[in-house]
Design goal:
The chain is an all-alpha fold and about 150 residues long. It has one domain. It contains 5 helices and no strands. The protein has helices at about 5-25, 45-50, 55-70, 80-100, 110-135. Helix 1 (about 5-25) runs antiparallel to helix 3, helix 3 (about 55-70) packs antiparallel against helix 4 and helix 4 runs antiparallel to helix 5 (about 110-135). The longest helix has 28 residues, at about 110-135. It is globular, with a radius of gyration of 19 Å.
Length: about 150
Protein backbone atom coordinates (compact mmCIF):
# COMPACT_ATOMS: atom_id res chain seq x y z
CA UNK A 1 0.00 0.00 0.00
CA UNK A 2 2.93 2.31 0.62
CA UNK A 3 3.54 2.63 -3.14
CA UNK A 4 -0.15 2.59 -4.08
CA UNK A 5 -1.21 5.23 -1.58
CA UNK A 6 -0.17 8.28 -3.65
CA UNK A 7 -1.96 6.86 -6.69
CA UNK A 8 -5.16 6.35 -4.71
CA UNK A 9 -4.95 9.84 -3.25
CA UNK A 10 -4.31 11.51 -6.61
CA UNK A 11 -6.91 9.46 -8.49
CA UNK A 12 -9.66 9.52 -5.89
CA UNK A 13 -9.02 13.10 -4.90
CA UNK A 14 -8.97 14.01 -8.59
CA UNK A 15 -12.30 12.29 -9.18
CA UNK A 16 -13.90 14.03 -6.22
CA UNK A 17 -12.56 17.37 -7.45
CA UNK A 18 -13.71 16.65 -11.03
CA UNK A 19 -17.24 15.79 -9.91
CA UNK A 20 -17.39 18.76 -7.53
CA UNK A 21 -16.53 21.06 -10.43
CA UNK A 22 -19.04 19.22 -12.65
CA UNK A 23 -21.75 19.72 -10.04
CA UNK A 24 -20.94 23.44 -9.87
CA UNK A 25 -21.17 23.64 -13.68
CA UNK A 26 -24.49 21.78 -13.49
CA UNK A 27 -25.68 24.47 -11.08
CA UNK A 28 -24.78 27.10 -13.67
CA UNK A 29 -21.52 28.36 -12.20
CA UNK A 30 -18.68 29.00 -14.63
CA UNK A 31 -15.84 27.71 -12.47
CA UNK A 32 -13.51 26.65 -15.31
CA UNK A 33 -12.89 28.05 -18.79
CA UNK A 34 -14.93 26.39 -21.53
CA UNK A 35 -11.68 25.39 -23.24
CA UNK A 36 -10.97 23.00 -20.35
CA UNK A 37 -14.15 21.03 -20.98
CA UNK A 38 -14.05 18.01 -23.25
CA UNK A 39 -15.21 18.22 -26.84
CA UNK A 40 -19.00 18.48 -27.28
CA UNK A 41 -19.52 18.99 -23.54
CA UNK A 42 -22.91 20.60 -24.22
CA UNK A 43 -24.10 17.78 -26.54
CA UNK A 44 -26.90 16.00 -24.59
CA UNK A 45 -25.66 12.50 -25.48
CA UNK A 46 -22.04 13.24 -24.58
CA UNK A 47 -23.20 15.07 -21.45
CA UNK A 48 -25.29 12.03 -20.40
CA UNK A 49 -22.37 9.72 -21.18
CA UNK A 50 -20.12 11.78 -18.91
CA UNK A 51 -22.64 11.75 -16.06
CA UNK A 52 -23.09 8.00 -16.43
CA UNK A 53 -19.62 7.72 -14.88
CA UNK A 54 -20.60 9.63 -11.75
CA UNK A 55 -21.78 6.62 -9.67
CA UNK A 56 -18.85 4.48 -10.81
CA UNK A 57 -16.30 7.19 -10.02
CA UNK A 58 -17.90 7.91 -6.67
CA UNK A 59 -17.88 4.24 -5.61
CA UNK A 60 -14.28 3.67 -6.72
CA UNK A 61 -13.14 6.85 -4.96
CA UNK A 62 -14.86 5.99 -1.69
CA UNK A 63 -13.45 2.45 -1.79
CA UNK A 64 -9.95 3.68 -2.61
CA UNK A 65 -9.90 6.27 0.14
CA UNK A 66 -11.39 3.78 2.60
CA UNK A 67 -8.66 1.29 1.65
CA UNK A 68 -5.99 3.90 2.40
CA UNK A 69 -7.62 4.73 5.73
CA UNK A 70 -8.07 1.10 6.77
CA UNK A 71 -4.50 0.26 5.83
CA UNK A 72 -3.34 3.12 8.04
CA UNK A 73 -5.29 1.57 10.92
CA UNK A 74 -3.85 -1.90 10.31
CA UNK A 75 -7.22 -3.28 9.21
CA UNK A 76 -6.76 -6.14 6.71
CA UNK A 77 -10.06 -5.27 5.01
CA UNK A 78 -8.12 -2.63 3.02
CA UNK A 79 -7.08 -5.27 0.46
CA UNK A 80 -10.47 -6.18 -1.01
CA UNK A 81 -11.45 -2.51 -1.00
CA UNK A 82 -8.25 -1.61 -2.82
CA UNK A 83 -8.73 -4.43 -5.34
CA UNK A 84 -12.32 -3.36 -6.02
CA UNK A 85 -11.27 0.26 -6.42
CA UNK A 86 -8.42 -0.69 -8.77
CA UNK A 87 -10.74 -2.77 -10.94
CA UNK A 88 -13.31 0.02 -11.17
CA UNK A 89 -10.61 2.61 -11.87
CA UNK A 90 -9.34 0.52 -14.77
CA UNK A 91 -12.90 0.12 -16.09
CA UNK A 92 -13.62 3.84 -15.90
CA UNK A 93 -10.46 4.75 -17.77
CA UNK A 94 -10.83 1.97 -20.33
CA UNK A 95 -14.46 2.84 -21.08
CA UNK A 96 -13.49 6.48 -21.63
CA UNK A 97 -10.56 5.53 -23.91
CA UNK A 98 -12.89 3.30 -25.91
CA UNK A 99 -15.46 6.08 -26.20
CA UNK A 100 -12.93 8.66 -27.38
CA UNK A 101 -11.49 6.10 -29.84
CA UNK A 102 -14.92 5.39 -31.33
CA UNK A 103 -15.45 9.13 -31.73
CA UNK A 104 -11.95 9.52 -33.25
CA UNK A 105 -11.28 12.27 -30.74
CA UNK A 106 -7.65 12.32 -29.64
CA UNK A 107 -7.35 15.24 -27.22
CA UNK A 108 -4.02 14.62 -25.45
CA UNK A 109 -5.19 15.94 -22.09
CA UNK A 110 -8.23 13.67 -21.90
CA UNK A 111 -6.25 10.73 -23.26
CA UNK A 112 -3.43 11.20 -20.75
CA UNK A 113 -5.83 11.29 -17.82
CA UNK A 114 -7.73 8.21 -18.94
CA UNK A 115 -4.62 6.22 -19.89
CA UNK A 116 -3.34 6.97 -16.38
CA UNK A 117 -6.57 5.43 -15.02
CA UNK A 118 -5.96 2.34 -17.15
CA UNK A 119 -2.24 1.95 -16.48
CA UNK A 120 -1.69 2.23 -12.76
CA UNK A 121 -4.31 -0.36 -11.73
CA UNK A 122 -2.74 -2.78 -14.25
CA UNK A 123 0.55 -2.38 -12.44
CA UNK A 124 -0.72 -2.73 -8.87
CA UNK A 125 -3.65 -5.17 -9.12
CA UNK A 126 -1.53 -8.26 -9.94
CA UNK A 127 0.87 -7.36 -7.14
CA UNK A 128 -1.99 -6.95 -4.70
CA UNK A 129 -3.42 -10.31 -5.76
CA UNK A 130 -0.03 -12.05 -5.36
CA UNK A 131 0.44 -10.48 -1.92
CA UNK A 132 -3.01 -11.70 -0.91
CA UNK A 133 -2.13 -15.25 -1.95
CA UNK A 134 1.15 -15.13 -0.02
CA UNK A 135 -0.59 -13.81 3.10
CA UNK A 136 -3.23 -16.56 2.99
CA UNK A 137 -1.81 -20.04 2.66
CA UNK A 138 -4.09 -22.60 1.07
CA UNK A 139 -6.08 -24.61 3.57
CA UNK A 140 -6.10 -28.35 3.29
CA UNK A 141 -9.55 -29.82 2.89
CA UNK A 142 -10.81 -31.77 5.86
CA UNK A 143 -10.68 -35.47 5.39
CA UNK A 144 -12.96 -38.10 6.86
CA UNK A 145 -10.09 -40.58 6.75
CA UNK A 146 -7.97 -41.53 9.71
Amino acid sequence: MRRMRPFFLVTDGGFLLYWSVSLLILLGLDVVPASWLFKDYEDPVVYAWNWSFFPLDLVLSVCGLLAVRRHGRGDASWRPLAAFSLALTFCAGFMAVCFWTIRLDFDPSWWAANLFLVAWPCYFLPRLARAQVVDRPLRRPHSDEG
